[in-house]
Amino acid sequence: MLDGLKRLEYRGYDSSGLIVATNKGFEQVKRTGRVVNLEEALDELQYGGNLGISHTRWATHGDVTEANAHPHTSSDGKISLVHNGVIENYVGMKQFLEKKGYTFQSETDSEALSNLIAYHYAKEGRASGKNPFLEAVRKSLRHVEGTYGIAVVCPDFPLELIGARKGSPLIIGIGKDENLIASDVNAITHCTQNVVYLNDNEVVHMTNADFSITTVSSKNVEAVIHKVDWDTSAAELGDYSHFMEKEIFEQPVSLQNGMRGRFSDDSSTAVFGGLNLNSQELRQIDRILFLACGTAWHACLVAEYLIERFARIPVEVEYASEFRYRNAPLDKNTLVIAISQSGETIDTLGALREAKRKGYRTLAINNSVGSTIARESDGGIYQHAGPEIGVASTKAFTSQIMICAMLALYLGRLRDLSYEDGIQIVKALRGVPEQVGQILQQNEAIAAVAKKYAKYEDCLFLGRQLMFPIALEGALKLKEISYIHAEGYPAAEMKHGPIALICENCPSVFLATSGEIFQKSLANVQEVKARKGKVICIATEGCEIPDNLVDDIIRVPECHEIVKPILMSIPIQLFSYHVALERGCDVDKPRNLAKSVTVE
Ligand code: AGP
User: Cβ(163)–Cβ(150) under 8 Å?
Assistant: First the structure.
């Protein structure tokens, strides 16, 4: 369980706990802070056991305290559980249970579910052939509004474990003389690569030797066993200082893997296996709507520029959390594409389900095989970027842009994009891993620049056209790992307000690429310099920048338009990484964040 928690810690790390079923009953340990604090407290356990549950928390309800850490045990001591998700009707549940004599030790919604299951367990008759523990769990879940991924134990059934999910992921691991439940495949690939993905409203009842799946309403469900295809070392730190550093430097490989086997024999277009849409159906698409959150949403903005430029299809981009409640009117030939590294972001999943409810064709661009979003979309493209553990997304972002560039190429070549243009684009994409490797060699130089700007508390990122989404991404990277207040804007937009922020204590990072608007970007730089703003310019080799105009410059190789977003992302990742290091921040586990946001 500790190994699993350490592998899951990037998903939430403000407190942790575990319970073991021993022959003397349950034993529990909880600690605030990182999992290592829990490990150091394990000598409090006096007995051994072969069944247990454990949890590392990202707080939703209640402060970071030991009392609020999971597992949560019912006040009659009969039920203990760990829970991912949000129980929206927990207040009413608590009031009902308090009237029934149950008491509460924490401020969490999860404890209400533990007491509710205990309530139904106490009421459950001992009818022959029925397992009262399982019946109590199923009955209780039928009263839950909201989301859950849970694992539940009961001291009267010390060899049985129950799991269930609705909205939060849950996976069964089929091991050798053992079975496991986890919220993320990363937690168990060192034990087994044979997994079953639970679907919403399903309940698994297991022992070390067997398991069965039913729905919450007791209907039997056939288990489908999948084999996880990556090796466990992919999710380990190796010789790097941080996962974020490892994943930044993995990008030549992750980008190569995203392209593998996905170009046509004549190298004039891309080919995808899992769209489940034929050429004719794709030609009828007259609008594409992208849905995502955070960094993935920035990838969607890049996709908008690329697909409109190279495939001439109108594209809209919406925050998933906004789309799912907005009831937006869409053309009937709209293709909806969700982008999600984890494939479990609940807002993106909710938006995808809303689009499907309205009958739209859906695709997912996703980095987690077997994830909920991958399984619930009509087709999709796996990123094959390998596990991304660092909370700040890096290789997954450039991988998403790469996939979107290939999708723009593919859709374009189904329409007006010429053979020659296709050949040039494929050549440019194939050159990306080497060019990224060249940029990574500037790591030390970029670190030196970053150290100069680590003392500031504000920063602007500015770019035009394809560089605007990269400016947004640069601002998000910097703010989420260094806690500097950073904002991204279209460079021309600065004059409409943000320029008021410019002063010697608010540096600006300009993303400038050669082309017809370079001179306009230069004019924006001069507007900043005229107000004593410091300027860091990230520019392609072909940009002629007057001496002494900018304070620091970082160059990336000249390249085709379609790959500029990928190359220009590398310096902003390294810049943010080194600024955060200089400020002594926890790069892989920044405060308040979690890698996969499975709560609304
Ligand atoms: C990225 O640096 C952030 N940690 C976050 O914005 C992330 O991109 C967002 O939560 C979406 O996650 P997903 O791609 O797994 O859906």
Answer: yes
Asked whether the beta carbons of 456 and 506 are under 8 A apart, the reply is yes
Cα torsion angle, 26, 29, 34, 40, sign? negative
Whether 365 contacts 402, CB under 8 Å: no
Distance 52 CA to ligand 1 centre (A): 31
Q: What CATH number does domain 441-592 carry, 3.40.605.10, 3.90.1300.10, 3.30.2350.10, 3.40.50.10490?
A: 3.40.50.10490
Coil, strand or helix: which one is 119? Answer: helix
Instruction: Convert the pLDDT of each residue in 560-597 to its tens digit.
Output: 999 999 999 999 999 999 999 999 999 998 888 877 77
Tell me the CA–centroid distance for residue 287 and ligand 1, in Å: 25
Give 50-76 pLDDT, tens digit per residue.
999 999 988 777 888 899 999 999 999
AA letter at 261: G
Chain region(s) in the chain for CATH 3.40.50.10490: 240-430, 441-592
pLDDT tens digit string along 446-455? Answer: 999 999 999 9
Q: Beta strands 194-197 and 552-556: pairing type?
A: unpaired
CB distance 335 to 289 below 8 Å: yes
DSSP conformation class of 199: P
The pLDDT of residue 246: 97
Contact call for residues 69 and 55 (beta carbons, < 8 A): yes
Model confidence, pTM? 0.85
**Superfamily the domain 2-229 falls into:** Aminohydrolase, N-terminal nucleophile (Ntn) domain (3.60.20.10)
> 459: which DSSP letter?
E
What order do you get walking across the sheet with 334-340 strand by strand?
Answer: 315-319, 287-292, 334-340, 361-366, 379-382
The residue whose C-alpha atom lies closest to atom 9 belonging to ligand 1 is 294
Residues with CB under 6 A from ligand 1: 293-296, 340-342, 345, 348, 391-393, 480, 596-597
Quote the DSSP letter at residue 90: H
Tell how far the Cα of 298 is from the centroid of ligand 1, in angstroms: 10
Burial class (CB in 10 A: 0-12, 13-18, 19+), 210: exposed
Q: What span, in angstroms and rounded, lies between the C-alpha atoms of 226 and 159?
A: 25
Instruction: Look at the domain 240-430 and name its fold.
Output: Rossmann fold (3.40.50)
What atom in ligand 1 is closest to the CA of residue 593?
4
Contact (Cβ atoms closer than 8 angstroms) between residue 7 and residue 24 = no
From the DSSP assignment, how many helices (H) and strands (E) are in the chain? 19, 24
- Rounded to the nearest angstrom, the distance between the alpha carbon of 115 and the centre of ligand 1 is 33
